Amino acid sequence: MSNFTISLEQAIIWARSWRNNPPKALAKGHLIPGAALKELLATENVVNVRAYMGVDETNTQKLMFVGVDSAGHDMIGENNSIYDHTEPCPKICDPSSPLFTP
Fold first, then answer.
1. CB of 46 within 8 A of CB of 40?
2. 80 strand-pairing partners
3. For a pLDDT cut of 90, what percent of the chain falls above it?
């Protein structure tokens, strides 16, 4: 298993947490490890990437992403992974970015 992946079971818990009890203060963005994106895009049959919002056990907002095949289906299963290890902003932010400041 990759250093950037989480289990389907964990992803389901985080996604349900986001839907059932979304955070009051939403993240302004997420830092996504480039190596994770490269790994996902190098996966056979991945033509696009879909992102899902989640909230983990520490109430940290998560951006989970999965490969999408040419038919538009999420590639989730035994031979495919769900990626995470993103860092929400605030915490990991670029305060000089015009997308961060009002």
1. yes
2. 77
3. 66
* Structural tokens at position 45: 């049959």
Closest among 88, 94, 99 to 63, alpha carbons compared? 88
Residue 11: count other Cβ atoms within 10 Å of its Cβ. 22
Residue 74: partners with Cβ closer than 8 Å, 6 or more residues away: 50, 66, 67, 68
Minimal CA–CA distance to 99: which of 24, 23, 18, 31?
A: 31
Query: By C-alpha distance, which of 56, 49, 71, 47 is closest to 16?
Result: 56
Instruction: Dig out the tokens for 32 from the structure.
Output: 């996504």
**Helix H segments across 21-81?**
34-41
Q: Which amino acid is at 52?
A: Y
What does the block give as tokens for 31? 């830092």
Contacts of 15 (CB under 8 A, 6+ apart): 52, 53, 54, 64
pLDDT of residue 91: 81
One-letter amino acid identity for 61? Q
